Amino acid sequence: MHLQALAKWRFIPREWPQDFREQVLNMSLLEITALFNNDSQLSKAQRQGLQAKTVLDFIADFYLVRNAGTLAFADISQATQQTYQTMANLLNNNTRCVVSSDNKGKNICQLKSALTQAFSIYDNLNHALPDRCLIIDMSENKSLQNCATDTASP
After folding, report:
1. 146, containing H or E segment
2. What is the superkingdom listed in this entry's lineage (predicted)?
3. Do the beta carbons of residue 115 and residue 122 sit within 8 Å?
4. What pLDDT, on the 0 to 100 scale, is given for residue 150?
5. How far is 81 from 51, CA to CA, in rounded Å?
6. What is the SS3 assignment for 11-23?
7. pTM of the predicted model, to two decimals?
8. Confidence of residue 14 (pLDDT cuts 50, 70, 90)
9. SS3 assignment, position 92
10. Distance between CA 122 and CA 101 in Å, rounded?
11. Which of 29, 44, 50, 122 counts the most CB atoms within 10 A of its CB?
12. Is the pLDDT confidence value at 151 over 50?
């Protein structure tokens, strides 16, 4: 809860533009996909997952993972992680962004770019090296080992 409050009151105001915060933080991820016209291939379950999560939910979870590492996944359900993976796939598979003559099109492209980067970083953090139990053996030039899965005896 502490990191969620930090995200909402410190990280988001400091790291996300005000117009972004005012326009999209409370939109569902499904509403965001509709802006990019790439929600037609979604299953009913995927639609429900995207409708249940807002951009604010994602950003709060993003900061949770950024600051707590794998410990954050005790608070982020598997279903939520799958929803975020669906959203990342949608953003990555639709690389085109058409700018209309008004500023709205430009803002949508900027939003898509920002969210694509955020979901990419989230995915990288989600698949990062283990961070709970590590062994760094400086004596023999060995690579980083996860002591939870490394059963080799010294």
Report:
1. strand 145-146
2. Bacteria
3. no
4. 47
5. 14
6. HHHHHCCHHHHHH
7. 0.78
8. very high
9. helix
10. 32
11. 29
12. no
